[in-house]
Write a structure and sequence with these properties.
- By secondary structure, the chain is α+β, with helices and mostly antiparallel strands.
- The chain has a single domain, classed as Arc Repressor Mutant, subunit A (Orthogonal Bundle), CATH 1.10.10.
- 46% of the residues lie in helices and 23% in strands.
- A three-stranded antiparallel beta sheet has the order 1-3-2.
- A hairpin with a 5-residue loop joins strand 2 (46-53) and strand 3 (59-66).
- Helix 1 packs across helix 3.
- It is globular, with a radius of gyration of 13 Å.
- The chain starts with a helix and ends with a helix.
């Protein structure tokens, strides 16, 4: 199974994902690129910036991605 499929299946379960989660669970090193691939395939993916504490204690902003519940229901009806 490729990274796009893994990510699509994860998001269609109603889960939210960030780069650290993508790396840990799916070994996806470039999450934004995979999200872009899915959007180019027609998926509507929401995003927002959230605070994230790095290992060194510094707080930075990272992107969090998800598919809205309405979109998930629409896709499951197809």
């Amino acid at each position: 199974m490729n990274q796009n499929t893994l990510l699509r299946n994860y998001l269609l379960k109603g889960k939210r994902i960030t780069q650290p989660i993508a790396m840990q669970k799916m070994l996806i090193g470039r999450l934004a690129s995979r999200v872009n691939n899915l959007e180019n395939m027609g998926l509507k993916i929401s995003r927002r910036m959230i605070p994230y504490e790095r290992a060194d204690g510094k707080v930075v902003s990272i992107a969090q991605y998800w598919i809205d519940e309405k979109q998930i229901l629409k896709l499951k009806k197809k």
